[in-house]
Amino acid sequence: MKITILSDNECRNGRYLTEHGFSCWIEAKASDGEPVNLLFDMGGSGQFLTNAARLGIDMRTAHYAVLSHGHYDHGGGIAPLLKEAPHIGIHLSSKAFEPHLKGEEGEKYFYSEKNIGLDSSLLKEHKSSFRFMDGETALEEGMILLPAAPARYALPPGRTLCRVDKKKKLTPDDFAHEIYLLVKEGDEVYLLTGCAHRGIANIAAMAKERFPEARRYTLIGGFHIKGDGENTQIGLLEEITRSEPDRWRFISGHCSGKEKVELLSSRLASSVTYGYAGSVHDLT
What is the pTM of this model? Predict the structure, then answer.
């Protein structure tokens, strides 16, 4: 398994563009040993394509594309992607194109002022490019798309991230539009999340419950811990990993914030790495 971060808020090398967004390129292997290339999220714009080109990655070689949830900082690059690689089918939740907004609960819905969702015009222009899912979906043997994680533990802060009810008022988002990519290679389990709005602790628990015999679990993506003032998610991860730190590995960035990833690294005995734009992580 090899992960290349194409879009993130941070970079170490001025050669790569940064933005508030997330995208990564995955080089995995199918059960028969054949290579499988997957694009996970498309950043906030077409910048991820520029970084991909500078890294020698050709989007036309992608076998699959996955959109983790319906926010602009993960799907803003959909249109540029489909222009460059029109053959790609994008797997996403059937709820991803519902209105997703930022505001206070109970406020009246003003789409133009509060929209943090996807460009709805894409549905008309590229409808055949989307592969909508409601439940678990297998891409290949050992490569599975999972729906929103069950809420065993507390969710991270997200009070101002909202949806719209039938009366056109803002109501807290339940993030039912969030999905994850799980890849199992041998006894290694890799789980990718865009922002972990359903809670990175819940996602970690889901991976372990699904494959309790795995030698190691590697979680990759934004963990939504930047506003984790009382370190709720960090504390939960500390609890989950305490008895078996070597079975866990984390590569995070984007909505986690660099400082909180450093804090996570200091609190956990497990491996914790920041996923800078342009960084390559060979996890084999």
Answer: 0.97
